[in-house]
Specification:
By secondary structure, this protein is of the alpha/beta class. The protein has two domains: 279 residues, Aldehyde Dehydrogenase, Chain A, domain 1 (3-Layer(aba) Sandwich); 183 residues, 3-Layer(aba) Sandwich (Aldehyde Dehydrogenase, Chain A, domain 2), CATH 3.40.309. Helices cover 37% and strands 21% of the residues. The longest helix has 21 residues. The N and C termini lie far apart (80 Å). It binds 2-aminohexanedioic acid.
């Protein structure tokens, strides 16, 4: 572990504030990063005070005034160099992510791959920040729109994807000409420090230290400063609905912009014509991967009643073969939850399930024989009226709900406050297209014969309703990081008015 931490520049006690340079001794509290696998301390971090916050913001604003005038393709070239650095450190960073979050190594490295992918995407995007041109109704007039950088933006990320979600935001915002102030979850501060250490030499070498900055601290301090700060035109926040509502209302009050990527309560509908083996594989990864702690985790299976028993038996069998343990060990498919609170929350949810008439047909116990925040994944036979089905419990609990026809399935599917990801398993074109139609899934992501989690970066990522409506990563999500300007140029010798208005002539 020592060499790993050394490669990533992690010391026993680290500064948690970068403002174009590491702030030597930030004034905030000390945060300790705990390995959820064995409850031991990995390293500690000095968090930011209000004074440190001011340094980060003023630096980000100063760097923005230069960065915005640096040509976008050249900004892209710097993202290319960053992408190469991510590649170089994929193994080490993936291992640290695994250590700090408890996700298995394959997923830790997969997360770094997601960072590489979005950095590569940003390189290409840097030559494609295109606006439309329009035909003016006036003679010898040209009309077009152009996109300008927004400013210094705030990026608030959650513990479960401590690298990738920052990269979705930072890589895209940076090619758009923005500077970034990153407030990661205080549960995973070391990944953030490691990432900052990886990108710093590249940004410094190119004369742009401080395009991407870091501020580690609590939501009630640093988070609150960021969302209230008029100088920050955009806050992109990933986390719970409660957090998102706070961010949305405070930033909305000052007419700032937000990108909100909040909880999911994702369902997969399994039709009786589905390829069952393929379905089981997708469902197990979707429900148990990252120990059920993805916002895209499959939480509800809506199953056609005539295959419920067969499917349940196969899932049970698959669950029984899942090895739970040290996330760094080969063959392990499920690591611990992030902390004790997460385990307690799962146990509270399971109690509620029982009280509401659900039956736990597999797992659900706290694993007491080993250290660390371990649980067994749980399978629950649920009734569609159970109130708990409306909630996102950030743990590996999978509800099985029976349905008769596709109409009922879609009704059950959509009948939750959240709207992030969704899936249908079927071989029928008619079922698939119905699910994808205007009266089908109401989510931001809808898949056929693919699970709810594990999205590629090329598409826009995000969801509807209580998920917050934001979109990040690929497609045209970049537009949220820029301001649009509509421009009309008159190259005639006349002064015609739009709508043919005659004004004194
Ligand atoms: C998250 O859980 O916040 O689609 C992000 C996925 C990953 C990203 C998850 N690519 O599951």
């Amino acid at each position: 572990m020592k060499t790993l931490l050394k490669e990533l520049g992690i010391k026993t006690l680290n500064s948690g504030v970068y403002a174009g340079h590491w702030i030597n001794k930030p004034d905030g509290d000390t945060i300790v990063s705990i390995n959820p696998y064995n409850e031991t301390e990995i390293a500690a971090v000095l968090s930011a005070s209000k004074k440190d916050y001011e340094k980060v913001v003023s630096n980000s604003l100063e760097v923005f005034s230069k960065w915005r005038m640096y040509p976008a393709p050249k900004r892209g070239e710097i993202m290319r160099q960053i992408s190469l650095e991510f590649r170089k450190h994929k193994k080490a960073l993936g291992t640290l992510i695994s250590l700090e979050t408890g996700k298995i190594l394959a997923e830790g490295e997969g997360e770094v791959q997601e960072m590489i992918d979005i950095a590569d995407f940003a390189v290409g995007l840097s030559r494609q920040l295109c606006g439309f041109t329009m035909h003016s109704e006036r003679e010898k007039h040209r009309m077009y729109e152009q996109w300008h950088p927004l400013g210094a933006i705030g990026v608030i990320t959650a513990f479960n994807f401590p690298g990738a979600v920052w990269a979705w935001n930072a890589m895209i915002a940076a090619v758009c000409g923005d500077t970034i102030i990153w407030k990661p979850s205080a549960k995973v501060p070391l990944t953030a420090i490691a990432v900052q250490n990886i990108i710093n030499p590249v940004l410094e070498k190119n004369g742009f230290a401080g395009v991407m900055n870091l501020i580690i601290g609590g939501g009630e301090t640093i988070g609150e400063y960021l969302i209230h700060d008029k100088r920050i035109p955009l806050i992109s926040a990933t986390g719970s609905f409660v957090m998102g509502r706070r961010v949305g209302s405070v930033v909305g009050e000052r007419l700032g912009r937000t990108i909100l990527e909040l909880g999911g309560n994702n369902a997969a509908i399994i039709m009786d014509d589905a390829n069952i083996d393929l379905t089981v594989r997708a469902v197990v990864f979707g429900a148990v991967g990252t120990a059920g702690q993805r916002c895209t985790t499959t939480r509800r299976l809506v199953v056609q009643e005539n295959i419920l028993e067969q499917l349940t038996n196969k899932i049970k069998k698959a669950y029984a073969s899942i090895k739970i343990g040290n996330p760094l060990e080969k063959g392990i498919l499920m690591g611990p939850l992030i902390d004790k609170q997460a385990v307690d929350n799962m146990m509270i949810a399971l109690e509620k399930i029982k009280n509401q008439g659900g039956s736990i047909i597999y797992g659900g116990s706290r694993l007491k024989n080993k250290k660390g925040y371990f649980v067994e994944p749980a399978l629950v036979l649920a009734k569609k009226e159970m109130p708990i089905l409306q909630e996102e419990t950030f743990a590996p609990i999978l509800y099985l709900i029976a349905f008769r026809d596709i109409k009922e399935a879609i009704e059950v599917h959509n009948n939750v406050p959240q709207g992030l990801s969704s899936a249908m398993f079927t071989k029928s074109l008619i079922n698939a297209e119905t699910f994808l139609s205007h009266e089908g899934s109401d989510c931001g992501i809808a898949n056929i014969n693919i699970g709810t989690s594990g999205a590629e970066i090329g598409g826009a990522f995000g969801g509807e309703k209580d998920t917050g409506g934001g979109r990040e990563a690929g497609s045209d999500a970049w537009k949220a990081y820029m301001r649009r300007q509509t421009t009309t140029i008159n190259f005639s010798n006349k002064m015609p008015l739009a709508q043919g208005i005659k004004f004194g002539d």
